[in-house]
Design a protein that fits this description.
7-stranded mixed sheet
Length: 192
Amino acid sequence: MKKSMMLAAAGVLSISFTGAALAKVEHHAMGHGKTVMVGGAAMYPSKTIVENAVNSKDHTTLVAAVKAAGLVETLSGAGPFTVFAPTNAAFAKLPAGTVETLVKPESKATLTTILTYHVVAGRMTAADIEAKAKAGGGKAVLTTVQGEPITVANGAHGWTITDAKGGMSHITIADVMQSNGVIHVIDTVLMP
């Protein structure tokens, strides 16, 4: 009994990263190639970004937006990609009616611009971002697939991402490894 309780306690970690790593991470066994829980579902490192995202109850709005923008095939491809994935709560912070307007066929170009602003080419783990920030004097400027930069920095409440409009998002779950990249869950939609 004690052994199984110790294993259960050891299996679920909550790590607050300060200078040594990124954000607040909650998952089973930290490390690359390990299964991470996001939105109540296991995110398997053997599956693609899209294959995992469709199972997260916290990312149903993002998945619907990716489908509406026609990006499923791209994000299911070889990559690798680093995706800063806003939660449903992040989309809910947008002005009323914004999401409904963005997923309409006539808004596909705008939606695609916003979504690709959340993607960086290559696999950038928390350690990679931290190293780039350290080399950049505390900030990492990353160029998104959309073409504009985002700035990642370690703030008073963990790692933040500042978008082109000056908006700020926090990384809430880092290093969700995928077969074609990595996801970092964020709490605010980034705007180019």
